Amino acid sequence: MLPDIGAAFGPYTYIVSELVFGAFALWLLVRADALPRAGKTILVLYPLAYVWDWYTLTIGVFAIPLRTGIELIGIPLEEHIFIVVVPALVLGIHENLHHR
Question: Which among 7, 37, 19, 4 is positioned nearest to 82, based on CA atoms?
């Protein structure tokens, strides 16, 4: 049985989990000396990911119950963070696997 962190963090559960994984992604990118390159990739990817996220939320593909309720430009704050953290984590792992 998995621990219920939602009981501890309530509406901040999603953002807390993103900050934890985001810190790990940042560490990986710094460790691989890849932060500037990853930042450029994430900036280019962001608009596409935003549209995808906005669309799927708008049509009801998924709901996010344990969030702050803060929305920016049509999507939850947590989703903006997610759009940055996921590619940062992927790029951080990739750079550490292939760093010379």
Answer: 19
Kindly give the residue spans of alpha helices, DSSP state H, lying in 2-99.
5-9, 13-31, 35-58, 77-98
Whole-structure pTM value = 0.89
d(CA 8, CA 98): 38
Tens digit of pLDDT for each residue in 42-67? 999 999 999 999 999 999 998 888 89
Euclidean distance between CA atoms 12 and 7, whole angstroms:
10
CB 46 within 8 A of CB 84: yes
**Crossing angle of the two packed helices 13-31 and 77-98, in degrees rounded to 10:** 30
